[in-house]
Amino acid sequence: MDYRRTYRSAAIAFADLVSRIPASALDGPGLDEWTMRDLLGHTVSSALRQVPTVLADRAPTLLVPAPEAYFALARTAPADLVAAARKASTDDARATGAALGDEPATAVSGYIGRATAALAGAADDDLVATPAGGMRVCDWLPTRTFELVVHASDAAEAAGLTVGLDYETLAETTALAARIAAATGHGLPALRALTGRTPLPAAFSVV
């Protein structure tokens, strides 16, 4: 699959969804303790705003060899570091959500333009400095597509709307979720659930 195309496709689907979320829903429920505005802010921050910055920051060494390894690191990090990262993520989500203003769709479109412009200037094998360590562009960007797809689905569910994700984008993201499960020791339970053998435990998540 073309990871650049699926990223752009996920971004466009997210922008379309945001344009259809009524203003009255922005301060309503989003995901867990987040409002809809917080959820949109997190998605923008994690999947769009940081892309030009990361792509411009070269790394000297490859430390994270695959997209699933990026997410697996969080499962093995010390609990206090994970808790601190989650708090920082929530603080950032709220600040970014507030900064989206009264017309979040317009702001989202601007972020997408800057992210895709930066991507056009990056080579597949460029090593970039991500929060998890040095990664190839072709491995890091699918983690941003994953963020876009998962959180677009969260926002759509909360708003009672549909989100127009195409086959390749959904296939790439679902396959990555399965690889994360395998990388964190949960591959067999995920496989058996996907093939209708055994339900997953309550609150099971690969991230």
Short account of what is shown:
This protein is mainly alpha-helical and 207 residues long. It contains eight helices and four strands; from the N terminus they run αββααααββααα. Strands 1-2 form a two-stranded antiparallel sheet. It has a two-stranded antiparallel ribbon with strand order 3-4.
* SS elements, strand count: 4
Which descriptor suits the 3D outline?
globular
Mean of pLDDT: 96
Could you name the ranges where pLDDT drops below 50 across 5 or more consecutive residues?
Answer: none
In order across it, which strands form the biggest sheet?
Answer: 1-2
Rg over alpha carbons:
17 Å
How many DSSP H or I helices?
Answer: 8
What does this structure look like?
This protein is mainly alpha-helical and 207 residues long. Helices cover 65% and strands 6% of the residues. The protein has eight helices and four strands. A two-stranded antiparallel ribbon has the order 1-2. A two-stranded antiparallel sheet has the order 3-4. Helix 1 runs parallel beside helix 6, helix 2 (36-56) runs antiparallel to helix 6 and helix 7 packs across helix 8 (187-194). The protein is globular and about 45 Å long. The protein starts with a helix and ends in a 13-residue tail after the last helix.
